[in-house]
Amino acid sequence: MGYSYPFSYDWSTKEIIDVIKFFTAVETVYERGMRREELMDVYRRFKEIVPSKSEENRLYAEFEKESGYSSYAVMKRAKEAKNGDWIRIEPSGLKRGR
């Protein structure tokens, strides 16, 4: 990992850690997969910290630019899945960090 995670200086240390947990979960979906429930738990906490859709989209774009991982694609797949499903996205063709 040669990139940084997006965050706001307005957040508490705990909130920064929880947002990083969400982006780490996105990485995990690409790298080895994750249970839908586990992903949705960290996403719900992320949404408590970032309730604004525009701010969410900004953070997604910043993270994708840095990492090549699409948070949007991960959450789209998770929302289409059922509890108990294993979520995994093939990382083929990713443009990693700049």
UniProtKB/TrEMBL annotation:
What's a Pfam family in this record?
UPF0223
SUPFAM superfamilies linked: BH2638-like (SSF158504)
- Highest taxon of the lineage: Bacteria
Protein family according to the UniProt entry: Belongs to the UPF0223 family.
* NCBIfam families found in the cross-reference section: PRK04387.1 (NF003353)
The protein's name? UPF0223 protein B9L21_11035
Native species: Geobacillus uzenensis
What lineage, starting at the top, does this entry show? Answer: Bacteria, Bacillati, Bacillota, Bacilli, Bacillales
